[in-house]
């Protein structure tokens, strides 16, 4: 994951928002391999700071859009896809903290009930209090083998169809540098990014 925060001309609290953003990857889902580059960018705009959310809200919006895309890609109901991957109590987060007091599964179940969104029985029986802390055994293989057909694309509400891209054209030949040509300008070294890796569980510069 790569994110950019427009800090304006001064840092203020933007650097803290970057840390909060990295700490909340990958949202409320158990994903074993997480890597993030989060940048706090100085620009010529008005200095910005956080009011509510502190770097978490924007990232969560992007994560949930991605969850919709992935559910569509594998042909699974987006609500059930979230329940399947949600944190359970005892799961290990990407930054090596134990998940406690989790409730995404129950939240999705209630939201689906209020919206009259049909969930299959095994997903209505799932709980954030069970099957955490190890191998995910929430949906037995036999239950997945007997899974109902996926929703038609028209009913998934998350098609995210990609617009066909035009065929790539050949690049024009580059001029051969001569002895009188000035040397190419050096590229600035990349620095200042907050790098976060679940492998090491730490922030690195």
Written overview of the protein:
The protein has 205 residues and is α+β, with helices and mostly antiparallel strands. The protein has a single domain, classed as Aldehyde oxidase/xanthine dehydrogenase, molybdopterin binding domain (Aldehyde Oxidoreductase, domain 4, 2-Layer Sandwich). Helices cover 30% and strands 11% of the residues. The chain has 7 helices and 4 strands; from the N terminus they run βαβααααααββ. It has a 4-stranded mixed β-sheet with strand order 1-2-3-4, with helices on one face. Helix 3 runs antiparallel to helix 4. The longest helix has 19 residues. The C terminus is likely disordered.
How would you summarize this macromolecular structure in one to three sentences?
The protein is built from seven helices and four strands. It has a single domain, classed as Aldehyde oxidase/xanthine dehydrogenase, molybdopterin binding domain (Aldehyde Oxidoreductase, domain 4, 2-Layer Sandwich). It is an alpha+beta fold.
């Amino acid at each position: 994951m790569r994110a950019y925060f427009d800090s304006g001309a001064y840092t203020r609290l933007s650097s803290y928002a970057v840390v909060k953003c990295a700490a909340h990857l990958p949202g409320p889902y158990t994903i074993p391999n997480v890597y993030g580059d989060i940048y706090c960018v100085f620009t010529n705009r008005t200095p910005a700071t956080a009011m509510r959310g502190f770097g978490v809200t924007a990232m969560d919006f992007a994560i949930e859009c991605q969850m919709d895309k992935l559910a569509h890609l594998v042909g699974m109901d987006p609500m059930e896809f979230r329940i399947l991957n949600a944190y359970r109590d005892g799961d290990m987060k990407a930054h090596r903290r134990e998940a406690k007091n989790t409730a995404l599964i129950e939240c999705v179940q209630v939201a689906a009930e209020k919206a009259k969104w049909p969930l299959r029985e095994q997903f209505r029986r799932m709980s954030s209090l069970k099957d955490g802390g190890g191998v995910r055994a929430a949906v037995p293989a036999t239950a997945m083998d007997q899974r109902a057909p996926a929703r038609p694309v028209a009913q998934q509400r998350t098609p995210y169809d990609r617009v066909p891209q035009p065929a790539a054209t050949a690049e024009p030949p580059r001029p051969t540098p001569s002895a009188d040509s000035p040397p190419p300008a050096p590229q600035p070294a990349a620095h200042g990014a907050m790098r976060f890796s679940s492998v090491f569980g730490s922030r690195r510069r």
